[in-house]
Amino acid sequence: MSNGDQLGLVGGSTIEVGTRRSDETSVGQAVVLLEWDGLIVENMLLFGHSVTVVAVVDQQAHEARLAEGWGPVTDRMSVALWGEWPEHAVVPPPVMSLTGFIARSPRWQRALAIASGFVGFGSTAILLDQDHEPNEHCLIAAHLRGIAVLRSGRSSGDAALVRPGRTGPVPTARPTVVSRWVEELVYERFVGSDCFMVSGVE
Description:
This protein is an alpha+beta fold and about 200 residues long. The chain has helices at about 25-35, 60-70, 75-85, 110-115, 135-145, 175-190, and strands spanning about 5-10, 15, 40-45, 50-55, 95-105, 125-130, 150, 160-165, 195. Helices cover about 30% and strands about 25% of the residues. The strands form two sheets. It has a seven-stranded mixed beta sheet with strand order 8-7-6-5-4-3-9, sandwiched between helices. It has a two-stranded antiparallel ribbon with strand order 1-2. Helix 5 (about 135-145) links the parallel strand 6 (about 125-130) and strand 7 (about 150). Helix 3 (about 75-85) packs across helix 6 and helix 4 runs parallel beside helix 5.
């Protein structure tokens, strides 16, 4: 990982991540407004949709995996074996803890449909590219799903929090093979430095 800023993580160690500051983007502003902690990974293609993922790094686990030669494991079948036959599998420690997911679109119906698919993984939000306030239908539908609503004006580009959402995943959610696989995909982007720190989080 090179050409990045040295940023402190939990445990006092530093690693290199992306060079952008989070408050330079409307997505970064949205994450700050949501008070989510972690690293921001934009344009993650998950289940056919592009979303922004925010995740917290376990620096100790990351260093252990570096020492043991465990890179990100993004093959879904390999990760599935960890859950199906844990007694026979050598499983590396998880590094990423999923904080939240943001779906962005000018249309609230599309953003909400995408965000709804991630309510079992963490906090969720939609970021609407529009200057006007979202209509009541949007706010009610998002509220029923526990999804936060933000908008980013097309002229100014500044993000504004319209309505907060639920903190964390839905209460019935449990860790699964799929959620672990998503963690490994995010870890791959983290190792490639394709992410940046939330402003003010150390």
